Amino acid sequence: MRTRLWIVLATFVGLGAAIWAFGSAGLTQVLSAAERIGVGGFLLYCLYSLAVFPILGGAWISAAPGVSAQRVPLFAWARMVREAASDILPFSQVGGIVLGTRILTARGIAAPLVYAALIVEMTTEMAGQLIFTLFGIIMLALTVTAGVDSVLLPILAGTGLMAAMLAAFLMAQRYIPALGERLGERMIPGVAEKMAETGILVRRIYEKRGRVAASFLFNLAGWIASAAGAWIALRLMDVNLPLWAVLTLESLIFALRSVAFIIPGAIGVQEAAYVLIGPLLGLPPESALALSLAKRARDLALGIPALIGWQASELGGIAATKLR
């Protein structure tokens, strides 16, 4: 129970720090971008973004053998909280993983299965993003002739780093569990057994190639669907840009955001990338910046209620434990 309480308190502190960080980065500008779309348009944009989470939940549950498909909404909710923490809270990716897995284990899914499915799903997510990024690079090379040199080097560097991270992650899945078991047993008695079980489950999931392929396709569809959301946002701003151009732009933005994972929400990196790459694909700098800020507003509108909802459920669980 103490662990749950500390996580909730850390999330409260993180939310406060996130609000301060967004305020420092220009909260007024973020809200102005949302106003440019209009209330109805912004709600439509947020609803579309919500509809992407069942796809992402499908990617996670596909990597969890034995879990009923009826639990897709639970996995979608876990993925939503995971994304909210990653996008908003200062402790970024690690915090998102912790919160997402806690939601699933608290609903009775065995921890080793949750962790094993997460490892496989994260691998397919990285693979899906790499394919989507390669699509963006190819489209940029085929359609843009002037000004590409100014952005090509960071894009290629980011793509290379993504590929290296994927390779390292796959390597870690093979060699680190055994070392972790030995070290873990010395520090926390009994943890080695759980780590060993997770490692065995990871190998078994990879043997189910149909499930791995399904997780990959769901994640790839999630990347594409998320990128298409930017096209919707631009249309709501009365900016007409071809869908292929927006998909190309978003694939490259996603890549640069990923390699800037140490910065909460990639604040500053995302905006600079939009202003640099957007004009190459026909998106004026002011519209590119407005799109980036609209996405920030969307992240806040969806992420803060998701994190507050998670905190409420955790506090309810703590109160119920005390009453027993």
TrEMBL record:
Entry keyword annotation includes Hydrolase: no
Main location per the UniProt record: membrane
InterPro entries membership: L-PG_synthase/AglD
Transmembrane segments: 42-61, 127-145, 151-172, 212-234, 254-277
Keyword rRNA processing set for record: no
Pfam families documented for this protein: LPG_synthase_TM
GO cellular component: plasma membrane
Keywords: Cell membrane, Membrane, Transmembrane, Transmembrane helix
Superkingdom per UniProt: Bacteria
Membrane topology: Multi-pass membrane protein
Compartment(s): Cell membrane
PANTHER family noted in UniProt: UPF0104 MEMBRANE PROTEIN MJ1595 (PTHR39087:SF2)
Protein name (database record): Putative membrane protein
Lineage: Bacteria, Pseudomonadati, Pseudomonadota, Alphaproteobacteria, Sphingomonadales
